[in-house]
Sequence to fold (1003 residues):
Amino acid sequence: MAKLNPEQIKYILATDCGSTTTKAILIEFKDGEYRLTTRGEAPTTVEAPIEDVTRGVLNAVTELAELSGRKLIDDQDRIITPSDGNTGVDIYISTSSAGGGLQMMVAGVVRSMTAESAERAALGAGAIVMDVISSNDKRQPHEQIERIRHLRPDMILLAGGIDGGSITHVVELGELIAAADPKPRLGSSYKLPVIYAGNSAAQDAIRDTLADKVDLKITPNLRPVLERENLIPAREEIHNLFLEHVMAQAPGYSKLMGWVDAPIMPTPGAVGKIIKTIADIHNIEAVGVDIGGATTDIFSVFRPDGAEGVFNRTVSANLGMSYSISNVFKEAGMKNVMRWVSFKMDERDLRNRIKNKMIRPTTIPQSMEELIFEQALAREALRLAFKQHKSFATQLKGVQQQRTIADAFSQEGSGQSLVNMMTLNMLIGSGGVLSHAPRRNQSAAMMIDSFQPEGITRLAVDSIFMMPQLGVLSEVHPTAATEVFEKDCLIHLGSCVAPVGEIKKAGGDVMQYNFTLPDGSTVAGTLKHGDMKLIEVGIGDDSLPLKAKAVLEPARGLDIGAGKGVKVETEIQGGVVGIVLDGRGRPFVISEDEETRVNDLQRWNEALKVYPEGAVTHSYATTEAAVA
Amino acid sequence: MALAYAPGLTVTERQLVKSKRILPLKGDVLVKVGDRVKPDDVVARTMLPGPVEPMNIANILGLPPEDVESAMIKKAGDTVTEGEVIASVKNFFFFTSECKSKINGTLESVSSVTGQALFRGAPRPVEVKAYIDGVVTEVIENEGVVVATWGGHLQGIFGIGGETSGILKRAVSSRKENLTEKNITDDMKGHVIIGGARVTAEAIQKAIKVGVAAIITGGLDDQDLRNLLGYDLGVAITGKENIGVTLVVTEGFGSISMAERSFDLLCSKEGSLACANGATQIRAGVIRPEVVIPAEGDVNAKDEREGYEQGGMDIGSPLRVIRHPYFGKIGKVIDLPSPLTVLESGSHARVVEIQFDDDNSKAVVPRANVELIES
Fold:
């Protein structure tokens, strides 16, 4: 990896190897600024007969080269560096999520205390938690041992005991793990990594018990005292081991590591980095979502004390739009998915379509009905992923979470969620279904329906899904990353205004509004319960969103951020979609009555111009593809 | 030549097929390079450590953990039998408290921290079979072998159930015919049967009852799969199901005729031994289900297909659509427009214009929604 001089960097190639698609972007330094100039993509190649992630990279870069007219690959299929005239780039960087999910088992002494903290650490690090073993989980020790042996996780996180407390129970758990002699899921060529993050006084005893049998890593106690969690060191160790053991199993990954000029970052880590950077620069609260083929990642920065932003990330391992699409349908249930669809579909045919997408994950919706159905699934994937995020993004301060004794004994929620939809300033969507939606209005509608923002919230999407690449670029060349992010990455959709509170009367008034638009004209009216309205406030000549002066007066008992019934006078940002007034209430409920539901969906879609006229009333007749 | 399409699956009449047979834990390899093996031959074996039974001696004898060691009659590594006294201690009144083993096995360890003793039962054997009829070409010391054979090779798109083998038997009259209960007869016991379009739930149940080894089918209904498994499959990671039959689906979900090339290949090998595996993993390290039809040939000879990569899409290339609204239709490329095209959904995508074989009708389809058929 060559040492880089940022000033000499004029051409930057960045790829993101997703589980479905490999995306490549070319950034050029022109007229004194860094700008995105070209993008290309190709299916990720982890399938036979190719089984080499670098093939997909080369295909994507080939497309980039064709479109840009710049030669980027030499005759030996290598990326040309450094740049010279019309050939090559100065640096090549990449992110990757093609290694699949991380499967972990966690163990802790008390299920509702250290075991739960361990579970939170693992989930926060992006793992699928296969099982939680604890001293009081009502299973016999021999059953626990059989379970550990049977699961074959990628790694185990063991916690238990506060620092200086009794060591007996956590060592007992260590003995169970040693007795199980667990093997890693992927190959038998290395020892199973076990992270010990329990009572520091037990470290020696744990070492004596486990060091010979597993690849033991010791980190500071994730629950050093009952009232405080310290999850970050364990999470970081999980990430290190994930890169070392899990992602490295993706075919061709080792080769890719030899090509890049900076360490390959896992895609979610890179997206999280750029979202944290934006939130800090603007001193706002932000939620970012990246909905991929296999997983959905949610990132949030909230400021519970008004100052320092607390970053949280969760990965919903089996909620995604291709590999995991069948699981989204399974988890959400047919009823929840179909409530977003205003035409009938035959269940048998529907199930087959979903499974066909699962087994051929790179296909795209060609017809309008396929698109509408896929976006219905996306709403549910986003809703479920955000629900998980709210459960695990709990009160943290810096790297530690402060809890009261009362919280520690509470079984419910284990700490208050940091997610506060009313104070949230910005919601950023990313991932194919949001970034590549044929209409930006569709992205806005999906985000509003699944996240249900409250009060006034800005909405944006990553234009062409380049946040991962910019995240890793910010490590190497922060200036280029920031410039491209501000000018080319984010598409400002607009804002959502959603009054919150109990709405007793159907069709009653929700809010009086009066907008003074940038051209001086005014739009005023009353938002009724169950209605949605779109105020068109677009983008200015400087490519930045225009703002409208708003006077918003919520009905008695309803709140848009200043308190129940309190009038708000503020500036609201528009965008390519505009300002959405959402009078459906929070949480809004879709009618169980079929006629009302279909009618509501049509009204909302028309108000927000989500689909072309008539598209949502299309009646689907089942066709079975009995093929000649 | 365009490259943005889903790669097709292998359907070949003759190639060198290699199968890596690896133990889950290190153990003994029972064959050597050059040995001829049958699918059910055991090629490697290891002993899985026996079940563990923990006993907290400190609690049973009422001792502090650090005193347990001195109360032990049996030491780590000693053999124990069920009911045998393994630890004892004399109390105040010179009565003796005893602790007896619950299992036959070995005392593995005694902890002075927890006062817990761990006993391990007798080890259990784990065997790896050859799976295919072939020749051992490589021995991986203490881990397993590579078995190779020349033969037909067909990859499916999805499957369930593990490795099996049997004589290939055709069960339908055409590749367009659904495989129903009436097609399954008692003489199919132990066979790998060739279906056509969709296999029905009743046919699968009958096949299980008859003892069919594996079913190869063009399509399968997801509803039937759910009924068969008893749960909704969320992620395509299969192979461990124990439903009594292995399924290899060649085309996809729904009623879809088996591709002509696949059906013809299987039918031409009727009466031959076929080895089938339903294991599927559609994620990192993709595994597709397969059918191997072993044939004679020198396993040391070079396979010209090795390293073969499917070519790009060109005018005239035969292909199949793999998504609605033309799902399953087969045709030929008649145009490959370069610019992005607006689809009915409103998306912009690179497309291919196809003329379908059945009715000569034409359609424009995203390149991402087609796969090439090897010619």
Remarks:
- The first strand of chain B starts at residue 11 and ends at 22.
- The two ends of chain B are 16 Å apart (CA to CA).
- The mean pLDDT of chain B is 89.
- Chain B touches chain A through 80 residues (CB under 8 Å).
